[in-house]
Each structure stands twice: as C-alpha cells, then as structure tokens.
Amino acid sequence: MKNQNKAATPFIDLFAGIGGFRHAIQNAGKEAHSRVECVFSSEIDKECQKVYRENFGDTPHGDITEIPAESIPDHDILLAGFPCQPFSIIGNRKGFEDTRGTLFFDIARIIQAKKPAAFVLENVKLLVGHNQGKTFKRILETLAELGYDCHWRALNALDFGLPQKRERVFIAGFKKPCRYEWPEEKIPMRPLADILEKNVPEKFYASEHIRQKRLAKQKPTKEITVWHENKAGHISAYPFSCALRAGASHNYLLVNGERRLTPREMLRLQGFPEDFKIMSSYTQTRKQAGNSLPVPAAQAVIRNVMRALGREAGFVPDFPCEKENKR
User: Which of 78, 267, 294, 325 would staple 119 via disulfide (CB 3.0–4.6 Å)?
Assistant: First the structure.
C-alpha cells in the first residue's frame, strides 16, 4: 500500500558547513518521494553562512553553544556533522580535551530537549579508535542514556560513486528500536575524467620545483591520477583522490603530479551538484570542501533512516518505529 503521508518531515542541520547534509536529505527525500523541510540550521563560520544562504535561501544561526535547546523548533530528524578536527589524524588528537570536542554535548542537550524521532551524526573514522576507543564509547553511552537505539558504521565515499577515498563514521539513532539496515550498494566509481575541468588556469599549477620533486619520487602514469603526498613525504598515484583535507598543504593533492584541484572539482569530489554556487575565495572553498561530507554516502544513510521511520512512499518497513515515535 502506498504511503499517503503528505506532511513534510521537519529536520535540523547542526554544524551545517556549506550544506552537505542538507543536500543529502533533500536528495533522499526526492528518492523516497517524501517531502522534507529544514526548520533550523546552525553554523558559526561566517563564510560558510554566506555560501549556505546563497544556495538554500536562509542563513544558519550562529554559535550553537549560545542557543537554548528549547528555542529550536520541533523536528523529526536531527543531522550533525560535528567538528572533526579534534579527532582528525591531521590535528593533534586532543579530542575531548579540546573545547571543540565538547560540542558533541550540545548535540546531546538538543536531543534530550527535543527528542527527535531519529538522528544521523557524522565524523572522521579515527573517532572510533580515539583514546583507545574511550571517546567513541562515551558518545554511544551518552546517546543510549538519552534513550536512543544507535547503529554505527564506517563508510567510504568510493563505494558511493565518488572518486575520493574518504572514510567517515555515521551514527544513526532512533527514539524507539527499529530495524535499521545500512546501505549495501556499491555504486561504480565515477571516472576522474568526468570530475576534472578542461583548460584549467595556470594559477592552479604547482611550481616547476615542486613538480620535479614529485617526478623524482613517482613515475608518470598513463591514466589520469591524483598524486598524494603523505606526512612522511611519500608520493602515491591513484585513479581517485585521497581525502580532501581542510588543513593540509596546498600541494598535498596534485592532478597528474602537476596541478591543484579547482574549487568546482573539490565540490564534485564531495558529490555537490553542478549548480552549487561558489561564493568564497579558493582558500575558503578548499577549507569548506575539506570539512564537508560525501553527499551520496550521507544520502544513502538518510534514505534508509526514512525507510525505517516509514517515511518512504510505497515502502513498508518490516519493523517500523514510526507509530511509537510520536511525541
């Protein structure tokens, strides 16, 4: 029997960045033939706010630590790619000792106050093993204490059609237990040739000195590749990009060992649509793309969350939690 629920599913977008999660849930809603509506968003970075406004028509609220949970509108799904720098291999691994690490607890206080039917959280894969697993264990314990049935899995953007090796951990939580199934599809990788722009301006090319240094360590490849330099200075060439990183060297990734990725190419590697408006400088856009998430991976996770909640038209879950989730 076809789902006749025509009411839009309200969601909130925390630590919104430039809207990766919002694109993901909007795409998932279209895939599920179910309307979704953003009722609240929050992002502290002014440049990201500007980009978000130009692409979605509304400006995210600022510092989430200063926003009372009770003032946030009721919602059914909470989305949050909470800041990953404290847990990232590029950073200093300070974790919860860093004040930004405690921003997870702002997510927790909002969940406690608003009791959404479900949430989807995203972070770097390293979070799982941080501090011998104690950080991640504490996160899961906190969510369980709030009364949520949680499922987690690390997913790779390469499995969702993107030519970028980007592993992220997703946590899907439900107010009432239900059968949640992780997306198992393996979408063929989009070739780098489809991602890369033609006639790239000279300003994106590395200096002759840097290019020769790369060639001294890595032979040219017949196919198009992205050359990756790790912290130890080792060079590897792959038919895909290694993970975009906001704080890495500008020459960390070079197409064919010659040039940097353009802003549009970086956004394509994250799965943003072609009509996404680029409003910031190269440096800022590089940071924004590096801090974002792989949109198709998040879309698949959210699509299955909507299925579990009974929000997908024409799909009846084996063990729905929708009726018991009403507040």
Answer: 78
- Strand duo 149-156 + 167-174: pairing: antiparallel
Catalytic residue among 84, 150, 178, 321: 84
Q: Give buried/exposed letters for 204-227 (b at 16+ CB in 10 A, else e).
A: bebeeebbebbeeebeeeeebbbb
| All domains of the chain in start order, with CATH | 9-187+293-325 (3.40.50.150), 192-289 (3.90.120)
The residue type of 146 is L
Number of H helices, E strands in the chain: 9, 11
Q: Is the pTM of this model over 0.85?
A: yes
The conformational region for residue 132 under phi > 0 = left, psi -120 to 50 = alpha, else beta, is left
Active-site residue, 84 included: yes
- The phi and psi torsions of 235 (rounded to 5 degrees) equal -110, 135
The pLDDT tens digits for 50-90 are 999 999 999 999 999 999 999 999 999 999 998 754 444 34
Please, are residues 320 and 180 in contact by the beta-carbon 8 Å criterion? no
Q: How many whole angstroms separate alpha carbon 270 and alpha carbon 278?
A: 14
